[in-house]
Amino acid sequence: MQGIFTGSSLWAMPCFERVLPNIHKLVALQPADSVFTRFIPADDPASTGGNWHRYYRKWPMMTLEHLDHNKLDLVPVLLNYVPPASVFDKRVYSPWYSGELQAALTKSRVDTLLARQCVFCPRCLAQST
After folding, report:
1. Could you count the other beta carbons within 10 Å of the beta carbon of residue 1?
2. What DSSP string runs through 59-81?
3. By C-alpha distance, which of 125, 99, 129 is closest to 15?
4. I want to staple 45 with a disulfide (CB 3.0 to 4.6 A). Which of 12, 56, 67, 99 is the partner?
């Protein structure tokens, strides 16, 4: 729910504005129990490897070298809940890759996880093609 996924960004998700009010309602119920993941892109194309390297060579404007760093923040309506809500930064797409998020959730005795990624929303995919 970051600024890089809204508006005219190359990563803008067509369903972002549609789902934001529902996420806002959920977070408002228990902000202290809310954890947001925040994707932090590569510094520059040379600092990556594999598919990400090829991607960032084609789209260098999506690296930290070129992005407006304010767009990495959560959108303001959700950022207002931090704290008590927390933010988990990740440098790869999946928040589960490093095991750090899982460890933090286990330590906090989290037993319920609500996840929604617009990337997999059929309506969004249809709108973006």
Report:
1. 22
2. -GGGSTTTS-GGGGSBPHHHHTT
3. 125
4. 56
79-99 in b/e burial notation, b at 16+ Cβ within 10 A?
A: eebbeebebeebeeeebeeee
CA 33/CA 6 separation, integer angstroms: 25
Look-up: residue for tokens 């809310």? 34
**Cα–Cα distance for residue pair 42/28, rounded to 1 Å:** 31
pLDDT, one tens digit per residue, over 72-106 is: 999 999 999 999 988 888 887 777 777 787 888 78
Q: Please give the model's pTM, rounded to 2 decimal places.
A: 0.76
Position 11 pLDDT exceeds 90: no
Q: How far apart are CA 112 and CA 120, in angstroms?
A: 20
Distance CA 80, CA 90 (A): 20
